[in-house]
Prior knowledge:
The structure holds 2 protein chains of 2 kinds.
Chain A: H1 2-6, H2 12-16, H3 20-25, H4 28-46, H5 53-78, H6 86-102, H7 107-131, H8 136-155, H9 165-172, H10 183-199, H11 202-212, H12 214-219, H13 224-250, H14 261-271, H15 283-302, H16 307-335, H17 344-355
Helix pairs in contact in A: 4-15, 5-10, 5-11, 5-13, 5-14, 5-15, 6-7, 6-8, 6-13, 7-8, 7-13, 9-13, 10-11, 14-15, 14-16, 15-16, 16-17
Chain B: H1 2-7, H2 14-24, H3 26-44, H4 52-60, H5 63-77, H6 85-102, H7 108-132, H8 137-156, E1 160-161, H9 168-173, E2 177-178, E3 181-182, H10 183-201, H11 203-213, H12 215-220, H13 225-251, E4 254-255, H14 262-272, H15 284-304, H16 311-345, H17 347-358
Antiparallel strand pairs in B: 1-4, 2-3
Helix pairs in contact in B: 3-15, 5-10, 5-13, 5-14, 5-15, 6-7, 6-8, 6-13, 7-8, 7-13, 10-11, 14-15, 14-16, 15-16
Amino acid sequence: MTTTATTTPRPAVAVHARPWWRRALLTREWATVALLAVVYAVALGTVTGFDGPLTITYLVLDITPVLLVAMPMTAIILTGEIDLSVASVVGLSSVTLGVLYQAGLPMAAAALAAALVGVLCGLVNGTLVAYLGLPSLAVTIGTLALFRGLAVGLLGTTAVTTFPESWTDGARATFGDSPLPVVTVVLAVVVVAFAVLLHATPFGRDVFDIGRTREAARFSGVDVRRTLLVLFVLSGLVSALAGVYYTLRYGSARGDNATGLELQVVAAVLLGGVSIFGGRGAVHGVVAGVLLIGVLAAALRLENVTVNLINIVIGALLVLSVVSPRVVAAVARRRRPVSSKAHRPERDRSIERSQR
Amino acid sequence: MSAQAATTPGRTSRTSRTLRGALRRREAAIALVLVLVVVGTALVQPSFLLSGGGWRDLLLTPAILAVLAVGQAMVVFTRNIDLSVGSVLGFTAYVTGSLFVAVPGIPVVAVTLAAVAVGALLGLVNGALVAFARVPSLVITLGTLYVYRGLVLTWAGSDRIDAGEMPRSFLALGTRQVLTVPVLTIVAAVVLAVAAYYMTTSRSGRQLYAIGSDPEAADVAGLPVRRRVLTVFVVSGALAGLAGVMFAARYGSVSSAAGTGLELQVVGAVVVGGVAIFGGSGTVAGAAIGAMLLVTINRALPVVGIPDFWQRAVVGVLILGAIILDRVLAVRRSRRLAETREAESSGAGADDVEHRGSA
C-alpha cells in the first residue's frame, strides 16, 4: 500500500512540451553514444596505430563476451533485479564443453550440452527469484559461488586445450581480408533480437512495466513470475553461448575462465544508461556503453597504458554517469526563480522519480 | 490488552522464554551449524580442533573476513552495500607495507592508524557520493571498486612487498597468541564487541535499522539519514583499512592484487549470518559468525576428504540455504502474526472456548 502512495504519475505534460527530436536525442543513451563517438574520434586522431585493421578485429573479439552477456543483463536490470552469476555460468559452460569434448563427444554435441547447462543455471536462478520471491542480489551471489565451484570442481587446476582447430579458428576468423570478425554476425543477431524483444514486443513492455512498479504490473495482468523466469533462463543461455565463444577464442576450457566478468558487464550496462532501479534504459545505450569501455581499453593499451589506468577510467566513468545527472538537476533547481517556489516540492520529487 | 496478549507467548517462566527466544534466533542457528562443522571435522581428524596449530587456525583464519563482515553488515542494515571493501583492503595493505619500507623504524601503531585513516577516507568518498548525490550504493561502490583497485595497481605496478621488508615485530602479530588466542582474533573480537554494543545500545545504532526498514519513512520522521549513511560507509572503509593491516601482518607479503574478489565473499558471509540484503534486520554478531562459518567450512572440506576444488560450490549452497531459510522463517512469522490477529478479532469466542474447556 505504501508503494502505491509514493508513486505519483510521471510529469507527462512537461515531457511532451518539448519537440520530439529533443526528446529522442537528448537522452542518457545518446549521451553515451556521443561520448563513444568523441572518444573514438580522439583515439583515431591521437593514438598511433589505432586506425590499423587489427584494432577493430581485436576490439570486437574482446568485447564479444561482455556484449553478449550485457543483453540479458540489460533486460534483468530493467525489471529491477540483477544477475551476478553470469560469469560463473560462462565458466561452467566452458568447463562443460571441455569435459564433454575430452570424453569423446562431438564438438557440436558438447556445445549444445554447454548451452543446456546454461539454461539449467538460469532455471535455478529464475525459480529462486521469481517463484520463491528471494532477492536476486543475494541469490545470484550464492549461485555465483555455486556455479563457479562446480566449474572449478569439475576440472581442478587442469585445462582442456585440445579443441579442433576448425572450431577455434572459426572463433577468431575474419571475413576474408576485412578486419571484421565472423563472430560479429552472432553479436548482431543477439543484439537485434534483444532490441526487438525489449522495445517492440508485448513481452518487452512487461519487462519495463515490472521495473517501473511491480505491483501495478501484476494488477494489470503481467505475469511477473513467468517474465522473470524467462529472463533468467535467457541470461543463462546467452552466458553459456559466451562461454562457448570464450573457450574457443582462447582455445582453453578452465574453471576460472571469465572470473570477474559479472562486474564488467554490470558496469557497461549501467554506463549505457540503464537505471539500477529498473524501468529505464535502452539497448542502443548499452551497446554504446560496452563499446565505450572496449574502445577506451584498446586505445589506452596502444598508448602503452597499463590495465590499471583503464580500471580507473571505467570506474570513474561509472560514478560520473550516475552522479552527473544529479548535479545537473541540483544546479537547475538552484537557478530556478523564486516565483515558482510554490511548485518546487512537486517538481523536485518528479525529478527524483525520473532519475530512478 | 489484546496487543499485550500477542507479545507474551504463554505462561512459561521468564528464563525459559529468554532461552527459547535465544535458540530461535538466527544467530544461534548459524552458530549451531558452525559448532557441528567443527565437531564433525574434529571427529574425522582430531588435530583440526585439538592440536595447537588446529586451534590457532580455527580462530585465526576467519579474523580478517569477520572484521570486513562487521563493517559490511552495518552498511547493509541501512539498505546499502559496499562492494569496494576488497579494493580498500588491497589499498591499505599496500599502504601498510610501503610505510614500513619508506619510514624505517616507524611504530606499528602509527602504521595501523594511518591505514585505518586511509580506509576511512576511501569510505568517506563512497559515503559522500551515496549520501549527497543520492545515487545507489551498488553503482557507486562498483565504480570505486575499479578506481581504488586501479590506483593501487598503478602505484604498486608489479612490485610486491615481502616479509623481509616489514619489521619482524609486526609480522609476529600475525601469528602471535595470547593465552592461545591469536592477536588478530582478539582484534576482530574487540571490533565485533564495540560494533555490537553500539548497534544494540546507541540511539544512532538503532536508527540504522530504521533507515534500512524504510528510508523514506526515516527521512520523514526526521532521522539524519544522510549523516548516518555517510557514517556507515566511513566505518566500513575504516574497518577495511584495519583488515588491510591484518592482511599484511598475517600473510607477510603484499601485492597489488591483495583482496581481489573479496567483496562478494564478505556479502556472502553477511547473508549467511542472517542480515537481510534489503536492510532493516540482522546483527553484526550474525555477520561475524557467518564469516567464521564460511572460512571454517572451506578449511574443513579437505579434512573430510572433499577436494578443496569444491569449496566454492559448498559456499554457494550455504548462501542459498541461508536465504531460503530466512524466507521460510519470515513466511511462518507473518502467518503466525495473521493467526494471532484473527484470534484477537474473534477474542470473545476464544474466551468462551477456554471457559468451557476448564469447566
